[in-house]
Every structure is written in C-alpha cells, then in structure tokens.
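Human:
Take a look at this sequence-structure pair and walk me through the tokens.
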Amino acid sequence: MLAFRPVVLVIGVLVAALGVMMLIPMCVDLLSTDDAHRADWTAFATGAIISVLAGGGAAAASWGPITQISVREGFLLTAASWLALVVFAAIPLANGELGLTYVDAFFEAMSGLTTTGATVVVGLDDAPPGALLWRSMLQWFGGVGVVIMAFAVLPALKVGGMQIFKNEAWDTSEKFIANATQYSVALSLIYLFLTAVCFVSLWAFGMPPWHALNHALTTVSTGGFSTRDASLGAFLTVGRAPLDLVVTVFMLLGSLPFGIILIAVLRGAWKRLFTDSQVRFFLGLIVVLTGLIALYAYRQLDISVFTALRLAVFNVTSIMTGTGYATSDYDAWGPVAIAFFFSIMFIGGCAGSTSCGMKVFRFQVALAALKVYARRLAHPNAVIVARYNGRPLTDDVFVSVLSFFFVYFATFATIAVALSGLGLDTLTALSAAGSAIANVGPGLGDIIGPAGNYASLPDMAKLLLSAGMMLGRLEF
C-alpha cells in the first residue's frame, strides 16, 4: 500500500524550496537599471509567497519522520513533484513582464524543468533579466533532478531496461532513500563543478558574464534555453568564434553517465569512462552522424570543409543530446537534412546523464536482441548469451526495452495525430510531437523550427506537448 504522507511532505518541502529560489531572480530584477524590468520583481515576490505558503502548509500538515520510501512511492514522488514544481514555477512567468498566459507559462516552465528547451517567449533580447535567469535555473534544476532520478528511481522500477544500471549498494531491499541521498549529493557536486567550468570557459572565450552564466546553466543540463532570440548564433561573432565548439564539449559532457564520472573522480578510474560500452557507442555515433551530415552540407551549401564540419558537429550534438541550441537554420539545408535531424532527435545521450531521448543503451540492447535472434536461427540448439558491458542480459531486460520502444512510439504517434487534429500541418505536428517526447526543443518547419517558436500554437496543443515532455522525461 502506498504511503502518501511522505510523498506530500517531500513535495511540500520542494515547492517551498522553489519559492525560496524565486528570490534570486527577484533580486536580479531589483538590481536592473531598466525601470520596466525592475518592476518585474513583484512577479517573483508573489510567486515566492504563494509557493512558500502552499509548500510549507503541505509539509506542515504531513510532518513526521520518513523511515523509508519504497520504489513505487519514489516513482509517484518523482512524477507528482515534477508536476507540482511546474505548476508553481509558472506563476512568476504568468504574472511578469513577459505577458504570458498561464497556459504559456505552464508550457515554458514544463519545458524548463524537463530540459526540453521549447519556448513560447517572443522577444528574448528585451526580456527582463529575472525571467531569463529563472528559465535557466529551471533547466539547471531539472537537469540535476534527471540525473538523480536515473540512479535512484528508474533502475529499481526496471523502467525501459534501466535495471541493468541498478547499483548493488542499494539493491539489497526496496528502500533507496539512504544511498540515494549520498549519491545525490556527490552527483550534484559534479554537476555544479561542470557548470562552473562551463561558465568560466564561455566567459574566457568572449561571452559576456551574464549570458555566460545563463548558457552554462542550460548547456550542462542539455536544456537549450538562451537569452537571445537567435539562440547561440547571436554570440558567434568573429571574436567569439570558438564559442560553439566550447558549448559542444559541454553538451557532450552533460550527455555522459554521471555515475561513471563519479567513479572516475572518486577512484581515479578514468579509463572506465572511455571503455564503457555506452560511452563508446554514443561518441562513435556522434562521429559517424557528424561525418554524414558534414559531407551533405559541404556539397549542398557550397561551404568549406571546416565550416561544414563545424556546423555538423554542433547541430548533431545539439539535437542528439536534446539541448536544442541553434547556430543556423538547418531547415534551409534541404529535405535530406530535415529527415536526418528528425531521425536523430529520438536517440538521446547516455543513461544517467542530463540528456534526453530514448538513450543509446536501449539501441544497444535492441541490437543485441537482434543478434541473438539471428544466431539462434542459424544455430537452433546453441546456448547464446547476449552481454552488455561484460554482463549477461536477461530476457526481462529485452522485454522491458522492446516494450519501451513500443510505448514510446505509440505515444509519439498519438500526440502527433492529436496535434494534426488541432489544425497543425504534418511536418509541424510530427516534429513537435517528436521534439516534446524526446525533450529536444526546436522542431522542424517555419513555425517551430530553429528560427521559430511555439507561441502561435493553440493552447490545447501546448498542453498536449507539455504532457509529452513530462512523459518523455520520466521515461514512462
């Protein structure tokens, strides 16, 4: 039987903590030299008061010791807390200078906390600093939440084959809270360190410190929110040319499994990071896909080899990791490029990272299942054992992964059909559904492509996409 009191208690504490965090963008607005922007502090003050009162009240009403949280309660806690945080995180966005309706604010907050990066905000160049920072903070909080969830909840629930990453340290019972707390702190420190290094690197390569801070928060989290309408492309002047390469490095780092990074840091076992099957497959796929689209861009766009490689590695990394930054409108590269980027948006990064999508390990498991099936056809009496990172894969892992593929694409198709029913054209409906469930951000086409946004979509479409973002991030 589920125990709801601990769940309500933790959600209340998280919502109250979110309210306290709203004081940071409130102070940023108060320090603004623009009178109109300075007035936006009241939106965050209102949001902070409501969140602290509601969260504090829920926590007080359910106060008591938490001796254990089962994995089922852990999943309920994860899903319910994510939704609750979005509901309250949207309040300052709806009441502020951005002039968003609550549905738009809810969409923006969901996009932030799920690190999707799809936006309905028009005029980012002139937006108040507090709102810009809040969007970035939401993605940063969402990124670390995803990492913790990947190690504390999903393996224990055997979601989509995640049981192959179950840590023996907390595999002794149905409880995960003690070890989850220890791991969460360690993983959060690594996450914070990478963010700090990213900030310093962006600043060192010419990005103004304010923009460097925001982009550091949204790069390591592979979220993709920017402070400019032109996204990262707005900063690629001659003097700041290497910025896209710096961002590429940190998008890749954010897409690596933080658990293995933690082991490498604690034990000095850096070799394990590069011998891990998932990491090698992910990086190899990045190299191959970059080469393919670079060759296409070189021949199609009549540009130099270096420029083609540069555009390719950035955009492939951005879309495949689900970050969603844009330095160029790849919609204009032709139908082959559109089909290419639509296909790779589903792949994602490594399990246990801030990245999104289906995760490369599931493709590895599916390939292993195909190999086993083919070998059994050739040798019916042979005993064939598939392995992943040297460990045997059981049938329940195969079933879990293949079931995940089915549910994933069934959900994608359902959302796409529903969006078409709301009047969206085929390309917009397909790419919006794919981008939402894969937590990528930009879609394809003139409306929601790299040069557009989601502002013009009907409210029902935004709510559908918000649901898709949450389902994709929680991995069902």
About this structure: Strands lie at 387-388, 391-392. Confidence is low (pLDDT under 50) at residues 167-178. The longest strand covers residues 387-388. Residues 177-204 form the longest helix (28 residues).
